[in-house]
Amino acid sequence: MPSHRRVLHLLFLAAAAAVVAVAGEEVEDAFCGGDSTPDMATLRPDRLTVVLSGYSEQRLPLLRAIAVAYAAHPLVLAVVVMWSNPTTPSTVLLSTFPPSPTITLHVTATSSINSRFLPLPSIPTAAVAVADDDVLPSAAALSLAFATWQHRSSSSGPLVGFFPRSHHLDLTRRRWAYTAATQPEGRYSMVLTKLLVVGVDLLYRYTCSPELAAARDVVDRERNCEDILMNFVAADVSGEGPVLVEADGGVRDWGDPRNDGDGGDAGGEAVKGVGLSSTGGMAHWEKRGNCITEFHRLLGRMPLRYSYGKVVAAAAGGEPGMCSKGGRLVRCDQE
Fold first, then answer.
1. What residues make up the domain containing 309?
2. Nearest of 110, 246, 251 to residue 181 by alpha carbon
3. Catalytically annotated residue among 134, 201, 227, 253
4. 32 in a domain, yes or no?
5. I need a surface site. Which of 12, 207, 275, 332 has the fewest CB within 10 A?
6. What residues contact residue 287 under an 8 Å CB cut-off, 6+ apart?
7. Measuring CA to CA, which residue among 326, 334, 329 is closest to residue 262?
């Protein structure tokens, strides 16, 4: 009879082989065929699935810690780690994310950042929290975001998020510009996929709509702007702008460049430097303005809508990212 250790080793190898098989077989038709359309009546409306996007092996320890924290939240039914680096050895991934009833691993066939919105048939809930691998909300913040999404005004509803951005028409250059939320009136038209709550039907629309094929190609070409395109999709369906939320505890953001890089927790500077916007400077904002202009041209309409104000559960102000400064965890905009 094989030893207990031998049995565990065989199970580990079988799981690793399964991960490789998923990646090799993944094609768009697997998610967009007639039988793949989500049946909203069968999805849990009272719980939440968290989809964490991962690519950098450097961030794997932090990603695992964040996945475990999400899984412990009483409203979270499932956590999916959407790994978009097909070159990572499956043994590395399975050692980081061993088989679990709550945390599952999906390795994508390509490194496309469109993959973070794949409408996986295994998602068991109507609402999905899509998040980066370096942000973690407080329990209260995640609960508020989900409750806000549940009380949306339309079946698909607007996006609910924590990090607002806006757009405006640059008349001099005859193009759209990407900006921070306008102050002091607090006008915004987008929320970032650092962390947002979205209906699973919008994942299907984003991934499977033939009308969006050229826009998805722009995302692949630029390795950027998938969040902007999702805001286009949500606003086009709902006719509304997104909803900004803020709760006690905020969102811990390891990737925010306003961290002081002291490395006091979870990787410090090494984690911060991997993100798209951490080193791009103004070129990053320029590229995203170009994306808005291109999406408008390709769709032939501008669906983005402005929103004002936010849903709050405690008195606070400003963008709620939490950063490490001088060994203390403070709001990122605090000097």
1. 4-19+42-331
2. 246
3. 227
4. no
5. 12
6. 222, 224, 225, 280
7. 326
Separation between Cα atoms, residue 31 and residue 79, nearest integer Å: 19
- Rounded average pLDDT over 257-281: 56
Domain holding 14: CATH number? 3.90.550.10
Let me know if residue 260 belongs to a domain: yes
Domain total of the chain = 1
Give φ, ψ of 9 to 5 degrees.
Answer: -65, -40
In a domain, 26, yes or no: no
333 annotated active-site: no
| Helix, strand, coil share of the chain (percent; to 5) | 40, 25, 40
pLDDT of 30 above 50: yes
Is 114 domain-assigned?
yes
Phi and psi at residue 10, to the nearest 5°: -65, -40
Pairwise CA distance, residues 203 & 318, whole Å: 29
Q: Is the pTM of this model over 0.90?
A: no
Q: Is residue 252 packed enough to be buried (19+ CB in 10 Å), middle (13-18) or exposed (0-12)?
A: buried
Decide if pLDDT at 322 tops 60: no
